[in-house]
């Protein structure tokens, strides 16, 4: 339950008790991650990517859906689907759905960061 003096972290969405009225993040790491995220977003939109994806991070997990992977990569679901169709991205089948592994997503992120 959310207590009246609790606040929702701007970055991770966790509830916390602020030490000052200006505190908007639950911890310093969230503040610096949010800052990096905003810088990344600005870069992405300058490069013509859609940077309007939700700011909250996706919890790391073994397999991502196409939608989740597209959010992480900062590209549209359609763009990601196209890459998959062209066999440029390795996918796995899980419960009848096409999924992308954590390793693959990270490789893609890394290769994209190298392009910057
Ligand atoms: Zn936080």
Characterize the structure shown.
The chain is α+β, with helices and mostly antiparallel strands and 116 residues long. The chain has two domains: 1-49; 58-116, Multidrug-efflux Transporter Regulator, Chain: A, Domain 2. The chain has helices spanning 28-46, 66-73, 77-85, 102-115, and strands at 7-8, 15-16, 63-65, 92-94, 97-101. α2 crosses α3 (77-85). The longest helix has 19 residues, at 28-46. The site of zinc ion has 8 residues, from loops.
- Shape-level CATH architecture of the largest domain: Orthogonal Bundle
Largest sheet: 3 strands, antiparallel
Report the CATH C-level class of the largest domain.
Mainly Alpha
Query: Level of helix content?
Result: 40-55%
Shape: elongated
Number of strands: 5
- The class by helix and strand makeup works out as alpha+beta
Low-confidence stretches: none
| Molecules bound to protein | zinc ion
Taken together, the total number of domains comes to 2
What is CATH's topology name of the largest domain? Multidrug-efflux Transporter Regulator, Chain: A, Domain 2
Beta-sheet strand percentage?
5-15%
| End-to-end separation | 43 Å
Tally of helical segments: 4
Secondary-structure element pattern, one letter each: EEHEHHEEH
Mean pLDDT over all positions: 81
Rg value: 17 Å
Strand order of the largest sheet: 3-5-4
Keywords:
116 residues; 2 domains; 4 helices; Multidrug-efflux Transporter Regulator, Chain: A, Domain 2; alpha+beta
């Amino acid at each position: 339950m959310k207590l009246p003096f609790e606040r929702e972290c701007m970055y991770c969405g966790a509830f916390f008790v602020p030490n000052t009225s200006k505190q908007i993040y639950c911890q310093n790491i969230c503040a610096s991650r949010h800052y990096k995220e905003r810088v990344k977003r600005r870069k992405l939109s300058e490069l013509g990517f859609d940077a309007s994806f939700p700011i909250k991070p996706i919890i790391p997990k073994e397999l991502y859906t196409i939608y989740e992977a597209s959010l992480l990569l900062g590209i549209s679901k359609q763009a990601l689907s196209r890459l998959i169709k062209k066999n440029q991205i390795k996918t796995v089948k899980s419960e009848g759905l096409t999924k992308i592994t954590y390793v693959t997503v990270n490789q893609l992120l890394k290769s994209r960061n190298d392009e910057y």
